[in-house]
Design goal:
Blueprint: E1 3-10, E2 20-30, H1 39-45, E3 50-55, E4 61-68, E5 71-76, E6 84-87, E7 100-104, E8 110-118
Antiparallel strand pairs: 1-2, 1-8, 2-3, 3-4, 4-5, 5-6, 7-8
């Protein structure tokens, strides 16, 4: 099993009409051949499925990709607010360049991110 590095960049929205490559996430996850998260593989490597949130003007955050119930989230240990950022229906999305993923961030706002690359 090989972990893949996925980079998400903020997609276009009202605040960033061109999107932003300076705001997003890089994370490691086990993906199957179609670009879907492989939950069975994740169980064997959950400690290696790390996430790095970067946001221009804010401090970086580091945590893990977690699976709870039927959903996926980014989980951070040292966050004063809600430590989890749910990923909207990630179990149904393909993580391939150009696709979009929605994340409910710590501020409660759901933002859309574009898959910039998968390595």
């Amino acid at each position: 099993m090989t972990l893949r590095k996925v980079k998400l960049e903020l997609a276009r929205d009202a605040d960033f009409p061109e999107g932003s490559g300076e705001r997003g996430y890089e994370f490691y996850a086990p993906l199957n051949g179609d670009g879907h998260l492989d939950r069975d593989e994740w169980h064997g490597c959950a400690d290696q499925c790390t996430v790095h949130r970067f946001w221009l003007g804010e401090g970086d955050e580091r945590g893990h990709l977690i699976h709870r119930g039927s959903g996926w989230a980014f989980h951070y240990e040292d966050v004063g607010a809600d430590p989890d950022e749910p990923l909207f229906k990630l179990d149904r999305h393909t993580l391939i360049p150009g696709e979009y993923v929605s994340i409910i961030e710590h501020d409660g706002i759901q933002r859309t991110f574009r898959v910039a690359y998968v390595r």
